[in-house]
Amino acid sequence: MSGQTPTMKAVLWEGIPYQVVVKDVPRPTIQTPTDVIVRVTTAAICGSDLHNYHGLFGGSDVPYQMGHEAVGIVDKTGSSVQTFKKGDRVIIPCDYFIGAQAFVYGHGAYTQGGSTSPDLGGCQAEYVRVLNGDSNLISIPQGTENELDYLTCTDIFATAWTSITQTGFQPGDSVAIYGAGPVGLLAAYSAIFRGAIKVYSIDYVEARLARAESIGAIPIYLRKGDPSTPILKLQTNGVQRVSDCVGLECVNPQLKPQEGYILNDAIKLVAAGGGIAITGVYISGPKDKGEPLQGPQWATIPFDIASYWLKGPTINGGLVFASKAEPALRDLVTAGRVQPGFVFDYVVHIDEAPEAYQLFSKHKVQKAAIKFTH
Question: What CATH number matches the domain at 7-144+344-371, 3.40.50.720, 3.30.300.30, 3.90.180.10, 3.40.50.1820?
Fold first, then answer.
């Protein structure tokens, strides 16, 4: 019927922990001359989306669209867009820039400084509006080959790669990675690709450790005790580089939440003068409609300052702006030198997204993708 606003399907979080829904919402439109509308072909569910799903992270204005990992095809362009045209295949980086300010899709909140982001919606939707499309989109070759490989470049591969960089990694270093979820697994993959002599992958999910072992990492089973203990038996001086790819929802060997557990075990494990990257999300704030289970418990954590002082490792980390690494990783995928899409083991239609979230939250799948048929 003429005059009706076009709609699309999107995954929404409505403020209820452990629940997302798929609903029809208004389709985005060109609003400024620099806008680009992208028709999403494949999106993904990120581990940080689970922090929203669990009620721990997100903006207070609910409901909002979920997702910040997607690839697609340019559908419409604003009058000032020069680089892209209808039909071009593109990566939508998870972070986007308006001048010097950086934002992330699909979390309902500005990611630096506490300001509110423009209301763009998340990428687990049939269409996405991209601001400043010329500078915020990344082109990929035509065709659907390697689409899952390119999809990892939107966030998790770029984040994992940057995590290894932030440790101060050099070829020939030994590396330990806490977490064998998608980011942790790709951190192990990145370290191996870049010439690590040994990579230890730490987790309590056996299927994840099996996947890590299949790419050449040494699995360390968290349920058997502090991960530092068996690794230090193999490397008495510790490992040069350590990456925390878990963040605020970390647990101890009894699988009980324990604030600061990973960082303190990492201090035991890292070699003197080595490097630690804190890549997993740590965020704390007041409870509200968007973060009903949030609280002050992650604002501060116990820290073994004496051991840190004696060893003197560098600690780096924080929010990763994935778009800085994405063009180089895109080129590695295009050249066939890396195949990071191996992390995906579950692909669904958008109507099945709530089930995919549930399975991902329960560690029943490694990484889920959402395919769109238009």
Answer: 3.90.180.10
Whether CATH 3.20.20.370 fits 156-317: no
Tell me phi and psi for residue 104, to 5 degrees. Answer: -130, 135
**pTM of the predicted model as reported, rounded to 2 decimal places:** 0.91
For residue 318, give the H/E element and its range: none
> What value, to the nearest 5°, has the Cα angle with vertex 366 and ends 63 and 62?
5
Query: H or E element: which one contains 72?
Result: strand 70-77
Mean pLDDT of the chain: 90
What is the C-alpha to C-alpha distance for residues 72 and 41, in angstroms, rounded to an integer? 5
Query: Do 97 and 132 meet the contact criterion of CB atoms below 8 Å apart?
Result: yes
Kindly report, residue by residue over 153-185, the tens digit of the pLDDT.
Answer: 999 999 999 999 999 999 999 999 999 999 999
Q: Could you say which DSSP state residue 343 is in?
A: G
Q: Which residues pair with 174 in a beta bridge?
A: 198
Rounded Cα–Cα distance for residues 364 and 285 (Å): 30
Which residues, other chains included, contact 123 with Cβ-Cβ below 8 Å and sequence gap of 6+? 40, 43, 65, 67, 68, 69, 70, 92, 94, 105, 106
